[in-house]
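Forgive a beginner's question, but would it be possible to get a protein, spelled out as residues, together with the matching structure tokens, please?
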Amino acid sequence: MGWQGSAGLSFNYTQNINKLFQIRANTALQYRFAKHVLLSLNDLNLVFSSNQNFSFNGFQHFRYNYLVNKWYTAEGFTQGQFDRVQLVKFRYLLGGGNRFTLLKKQKGRMYLGLLAMYEYEIEADTNIVHNDLRLSNYFSATYKPSDVFSSTLMMYYQPLVYRFSDYRLSLLVNLFFRINKQLSFSTGFNMAYDSEPVKDPEVVKLTFSINQGLLFKF
């Protein structure tokens, strides 16, 4: 019950044709009272390259959960997002639906979310506007075999409700190694696939990144 949260800072360096340096900062803040849960997530990712190009992306997410019983939760959410890499000037989401608890044990938990959402998107270079309805289905899992190690997994599948060939997939895996009561070392893998991204030669369908950093819980 009450407030709890975390703040993370991670880094990644890649050497290929160009040198790439990536900084990711994120925060999570949750407030729980009775059967109500309020959640705020913030994420900002900055990428610098040796050819002096600079890009960034990020989002701000708010979610409300009502715990009907130990197996079923009603959810509602809203999100603002920008992604210079994928030429998304702004994307706004508003949706809701159902979350089902598939497993609830001491060392692990699994959830299945079946939701729908409205999506408003503006392309960065052309200012083309999209108004769409998508499903926003997800599977999430946590595993904590000991006090020292824990892991989380989140997968999203988001197709258009009237054309399933236009869809987005995303995968986020995090590993945490506890240093002390509040501080942990983290390793994260992010993957995103968009079957129909912004039509531009520089925009790719598949993106992924690996980050290492520190997570502080409060």
Remarks:
- The chain has one domain: 2-217.
- The chain has a mean pLDDT of 92.
- Residues 2-217 form a domain with the Porin fold (CATH 2.40.160.40).
